[in-house]
Amino acid sequence: MKKKFHPIIISTITIHTVMLCTQVLLAITLFLYLRIENPKTKLETERTTQLILVSLVLLSLFFGFYIFKKKIESLRNVKVVKEKLELFKKACVIKFVCIEFTCFLALLGYFLTQNLSFMILFGVLLLFFALQRPTILSITNYLQLSNNDLYE
Question: Of 25, 49, 121, 126, which has fewest CB within 10 angstroms of its CB?
């Protein structure tokens, strides 16, 4: 009989995939809207807007990874595998939300200024988000579990 991954692992990967698809669909919709409608909504304070949004992106990334690291460190003391996986899932969701927020900020910057550098920033952040997908290797390393612990 084929082993199945623990449902918590499957749900964590599903959450990541749904969040990734949502970002891509939003970006495509926004890009097409701005290309079809071509609104002239460039801000007069474009440099200030860029500085604020890029600062928020960096702060959000730092904040997300800081919280993730602290939550992972607190998992070292937990002995029950199911509880460890639940707490790992919560830590991952916090990290995903912070990275997704940075992607939304990049799209907001593109919408407000129509500067393609924000779309490039979005692409880089989206790639970074995609690379954060929880894998079996990362889960076993973070939680110090064996591969057998990840199956039902």
Answer: 25
Buried b (16+ CB within 10 A) or exposed e, 61-77: beebeeebeebbeebee
Report the predicted TM-score, pTM, of the whole model to 2 decimal places.
Answer: 0.88
End-to-end CA distance of the chain: 12
- 13, burial (CB in 10 Å: exposed 0-12, middle 13-18, buried 19+): middle
- Our CA angle for 104, 107, 110, nearest 5°, is 155
Report the C-alpha gap between 105 and 126 in whole angstroms. Answer: 12
Tally of CB atoms within 10 A around 20: 19
Residue 119 near residue 110 (C-beta atoms within 8 A) = yes
The H-or-E segment that residue 131 falls in is helix 116-131
Tell how far CA 86 is from the center of its chain. Answer: 18
